């Protein structure tokens, strides 16, 4: 089915200047960008976005990393977009990510792992609504 998902290019990958290389992978996989914004997250943004992880031991480090520099946030659409984006990203821990995935190629650690992607249709909707108003996500061109 055609789905939407959220992708965040994290501060480490933005700092490496590889936004375009990551976008090219989305496009080559048939994912279309319907909306995008570059943003310096506030502590409240990061805590709200990752609220589901608030009891995890890595939460404070995660919030601190995600607010350490600008991120690039995009809504991706395409056939099986949620799973497809997760395949492109590779495992959360780049040391375990398959060769050729975004994390294998651009990430250095489980904390600084280059990208985030929604893990389910339910969370994709919550995450898109967290960052994008209705008028900030464009309809497909065709
Ligand atoms: P992300 O997909 O953005 O979701 C939460 C993030 O927490 C995850 O990527 C990792 O960067 C980070 N993290 C740090 N330690 C862990 C861990 N042990 N398990 C899962 N995520 C972790």
Automatic annotation (TrEMBL):
<feature type="binding site">
    <location>
        <position position="113"/>
    </location>
    <ligand>
        <name>ATP</name>
    </ligand>
</feature>
<dbReference type="GO" id="GO:0006241">
    <property type="term" value="P:CTP biosynthetic process"/>
</dbReference>
<comment type="similarity">
    <text>Belongs to the NDK family.</text>
</comment>
<keyword id="KW-0418">Kinase</keyword>
<dbReference type="GO" id="GO:0006228">
    <property type="term" value="P:UTP biosynthetic process"/>
</dbReference>
<dbReference type="GO" id="GO:0046872">
    <property type="term" value="F:metal ion binding"/>
</dbReference>
<keyword id="KW-0808">Transferase</keyword>
<dbReference type="GO" id="GO:0006183">
    <property type="term" value="P:GTP biosynthetic process"/>
</dbReference>
<dbReference type="InterPro" id="IPR034907">
    <property type="entry name" value="NDK-like_dom"/>
</dbReference>
<keyword id="KW-0547">Nucleotide-binding</keyword>
<dbReference type="InterPro" id="IPR001564">
    <property type="entry name" value="Nucleoside_diP_kinase"/>
</dbReference>
<dbReference type="GO" id="GO:0005524">
    <property type="term" value="F:ATP binding"/>
</dbReference>
<feature type="binding site">
    <location>
        <position position="10"/>
    </location>
    <ligand>
        <name>ATP</name>
    </ligand>
</feature>
<keyword id="KW-0597">Phosphoprotein</keyword>
<feature type="binding site">
    <location>
        <position position="58"/>
    </location>
    <ligand>
        <name>ATP</name>
    </ligand>
</feature>
<dbReference type="Pfam" id="PF00334">
    <property type="entry name" value="NDK"/>
</dbReference>
<feature type="binding site">
    <location>
        <position position="92"/>
    </location>
    <ligand>
        <name>ATP</name>
    </ligand>
</feature>
<feature type="domain" description="Nucleoside diphosphate kinase-like">
    <location>
        <begin position="2"/>
        <end position="139"/>
    </location>
</feature>
<feature type="binding site">
    <location>
        <position position="103"/>
    </location>
    <ligand>
        <name>ATP</name>
    </ligand>
</feature>
<dbReference type="InterPro" id="IPR036850">
    <property type="entry name" value="NDK-like_dom_sf"/>
</dbReference>
<keyword id="KW-0546">Nucleotide metabolism</keyword>
<dbReference type="GO" id="GO:0004550">
    <property type="term" value="F:nucleoside diphosphate kinase activity"/>
</dbReference>
<comment type="function">
    <text>Major role in the synthesis of nucleoside triphosphates other than ATP. The ATP gamma phosphate is transferred to the NDP beta phosphate via a ping-pong mechanism, using a phosphorylated active-site intermediate.</text>
</comment>
<dbReference type="GO" id="GO:0005737">
    <property type="term" value="C:cytoplasm"/>
</dbReference>
<feature type="binding site">
    <location>
        <position position="86"/>
    </location>
    <ligand>
        <name>ATP</name>
    </ligand>
</feature>
<keyword id="KW-0963">Cytoplasm</keyword>
<protein>
    <recommendedName>
        <fullName>Nucleoside diphosphate kinase</fullName>
        <ecNumber>2.7.4.6</ecNumber>
    </recommendedName>
</protein>
<keyword id="KW-0460">Magnesium</keyword>
<keyword id="KW-0067">ATP-binding</keyword>
<keyword id="KW-0479">Metal-binding</keyword>
<feature type="active site" description="Pros-phosphohistidine intermediate">
    <location>
        <position position="116"/>
    </location>
</feature>
<comment type="subunit">
    <text>Homotetramer.</text>
</comment>
């Amino acid at each position: 089915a055609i789905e939407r998902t959220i992708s965040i290019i994290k501060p480490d990958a933005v700092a490496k200047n590889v936004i375009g290389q990551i976008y090219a992978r989305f496009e080559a996989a048939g994912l279309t960008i319907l909306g995008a914004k570059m943003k310096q997250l506030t502590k409240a943004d990061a805590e709200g976005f990752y609220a589901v992880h608030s009891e995890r031991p890595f939460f404070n480090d995660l919030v601190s990393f995600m607010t350490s520099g600008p991120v690039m946030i995009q809504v991706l659409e395409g056939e099986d977009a949620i799973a497809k984006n997760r395949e492109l990203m590779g495992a959360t821990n780049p040391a375990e990510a398959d060769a050729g995935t975004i994390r294998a190629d651009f990430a250095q650690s489980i904390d600084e792992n280059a990208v985030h992607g929604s893990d389910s249709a339910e969370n994709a909707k919550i995450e898109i609504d967290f960052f994008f108003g209705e008028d900030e996500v464009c309809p497909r061109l065709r």
